[in-house]
Amino acid sequence: NLSLEDRLGSYVIEGTKEGLFPDLEEALKIQAPLEVINGPLMKGMAEVGRLFNNNELIVAEVLRSAEVMKASVSYLEPFMEKDQSALKGKIILATVKGDVHDIGKNLVEIILSNNGYKIVNLGIKVPPEQIIEAFRREQPDAIGLSGLLVKSAQQMVITAQDLRDAGIKVPILVGGAALTRKFTKTRIAPEYEGLVLYAKDAMDGLDIANRLSD
Ligand code: B1M
């Protein structure tokens, strides 16, 4: 007899969708879609991370959890508030080279595109060359990099250097679990000519993008 909140977390932890959608519908009666994601679903994902870290879950199980998270986000997405104002800017998004984690990046895409930004999502494991190529093709106003592994933080330093060497100066927005504001400021920003801004979550990413486009 779990509470609704605990049930939502447990779908993610157990990696099961049985009963998920009716419970999401129920949750929408009391919470905004993003609150459901940032609250019970993220709490479940944090527990998955903890169990995985303790070797109590295997990769295949974590993948099922990721699928539940993705299915939940897809279900909730149409209920999110949409800003119908004119296009505020174009942003390229990529998970950096060597990293496959994309749930956070895709959440950033949803939130930015629902709020007036045109997003070009380059996917996962994106090497700097591919970002540079996309920059030249798309001429975006900013570049967003995501990465969850400790080595991805280092990869962001390399990516910033390569972008700088290619003459790119648009603001870079960075986010992801292994990253900190301090690392961004002391290790990534000094390697780049333009602004490098750290976003702690997707909403923070939107706030930063809005400040840049004002
Ligand atoms: Co992996 N994984 N994983 N994993 N995984 C972590 C990151 C880990 C912390 C788990 C752990 O051990 N506790 C650990 C990293 C350890 C480290 O480097 N220190 C880890 C590991 C080790 C691995 C593998 C190496 C495991 C293996 O194969 N042995 C492997 C890596 C493969 C690779 O990348 N080369 C791996 C694989 C996987 C799966 C494929 C099974 C799956 C990913 C599926 C997918 O993404 N399609 C997976 C998952 C699901 C996780 C955890 C459990 C959850 C990540 C997640 O989706 N969170 C994670 C542990 C954890 O974080 N608790 C873990 C939900 C998501 C919404 O949050 O992505 O943090 P997040 O995004 C947040 C913010 O970070 C921010 O906004 C979002 C919230 O609003 N944000 C941005 C993110 N990007 C942003 C960009 C922005 C702005 C904000 O602007 C551009």
Strand content: 5-15%
Q: State mean pLDDT (0 to 100 scale).
A: 96
Radius of gyration over all CA atoms, rounded: 18 Å
Low-confidence residue ranges: none
Shape: globular
First-residue to last-residue Cα separation: 49 Å
Describe this structure in words.
This protein is α/β, with parallel strands linked by helices. Helices cover 55% and strands 11% of the residues. A 5-stranded parallel β-sheet has the order 2-1-3-4-5, with helices on both faces. Helix 5 (103-113) links the parallel strand 1 (89-95) and strand 2. The mean pLDDT is 96. It binds CO-5-methoxybenzimidazolylcobamide. CO-5-methoxybenzimidazolylcobamide binds next to helix 3, helix 4, helix 5, strand 3 and strand 4.
Task: For the structure shown, list the relevant keywords.
214 residues, alpha/beta, 9 helices, binds CO-5-methoxybenzimidazolylcobamide
Q: What is shown here, in short?
A:
With 214 residues, the chain is of the alpha/beta class.
List strands and helices in order, with pairings.
Elements: H1 4-14, H2 20-28, H3 33-53, H4 59-76, E1 89-95, H5 103-113, E2 117-121, H6 128-138, E3 142-146, H7 150-165, E4 172-175, H8 181-188, E5 196-198, H9 202-213
Parallel strand pairs: 1-2, 1-3, 3-4, 4-5
Helix pairs in contact: 1-2, 1-3, 1-4, 2-4, 3-4, 5-9, 6-7
